[in-house]
Amino acid sequence: MKSATMTGVRPAAQAGRFYPASSVRLQSDVNDYLAGAVPPEGPVPKAVIAPHAGYVYSGSVAAAAFVRLGPAHGRIRRAVVIGPSHYEEFDGMVTSGMEAFATPLGVVPVDRAAREDVLGLPQVSVYEPAHQPEHCLEVELPFLQTVLDEFTLVPLLVGRAGAAEVAEVLDRLWGARRRVWW
After folding, report:
1. pLDDT for 179
2. Left if phi > 0, otherwise alpha if psi is -120 to 50, otherwise beta: which for 37?
3. Strand partners, 148
4. Which of 8, 22, 156, 174 has the least C-beta neighbours within 10 A?
5. Is there a contact between 100 and 93 (Cβ–Cβ < 8 Å)?
6. Quick check: 103 and 20 in contact, CB under 8 A?
7. How much is the pTM?
8. pLDDT tens, residue by residue, 85-115
9. What is the 3-state secondary structure (H, E, C) of the chain?
10. 49, 65 in Cβ contact below 8 A?
11. Sign of the dihedral through C-alpha 8, 165, 88, 106
């Protein structure tokens, strides 16, 4: 098993670039984007797909995805956030060994048990250099920090991985037979 041995908090690498570095401004922007989103109808989805560009380009579209989680804000306890690696190349998927991820809105703890569980799969490893500069997961966190109550994070970057490899990770984290994730 490839155990995660790093500790500490992964700092917000893209605050001030992809989204505001000021916690007050960031919270105001996220609240405005969410307020402008169409209120959700129907059941809370098990997954959302949201863009990960700078907020000026993608904030309103991201809000439209994340606002759908609001009705389950007190039930969702874990967010599995998956995105493409923009800065490093690698096979499979990589997670971070850090204990938490920071944004200007605070610190989100990593779900260590879930991380260790997926590290039991051959396509998942810890590779910190891919996470250090990456924006795709980081820009999603302020939305999650706003629409959810307390939750943990499973951060995963995808490199050269096939759909079956990603599906196996999701099945491990969600349970192939579970209909809900909270």
Report:
1. 43
2. beta
3. none
4. 8
5. no
6. no
7. 0.92
8. 999 999 999 999 999 999 999 999 999 999 9
9. CCCCCCCCEECCCCECCCECCCHHHHHHHHHHHHHCCCCCCCCCCCCCCCCCCCHHHHHHHHHHHHHHHHHHCCCCCEEEEEEECCCCCCECEEECCCCEEEECCEEEEECHHHHHHHCCCCCEEECHHHHCCCCCCHHHHHHHHHHCCCCEEEEEEECECCHHHHHHHHHHHHCCCCCCCC
10. yes
11. negative
Q: For each of the domains in the chain, give its residue range(s) and CATH number, in order of start.
A: 9-174 (3.40.830.10)
Rounded-to-10 torsion of CA 167, 169, 171, 173:
-150
pLDDT of residue 7: 75
* Distance of alpha carbon 88 from alpha carbon 30, whole angstroms: 29
Question: pLDDT tens for residues 113-147?
Answer: 999 999 999 999 999 999 999 999 999 999 999 99
131 in Cβ contact with 94 (< 8 Å):
yes
Q: How confident is the model at residue 182 (pLDDT cuts 50, 70, 90)?
A: very low
pLDDT band at 155 (very low <50, low <70, confident <90, very high): very high
Instruction: Quickly tell me which residue has 């984290």 as its tokens.
Output: 173
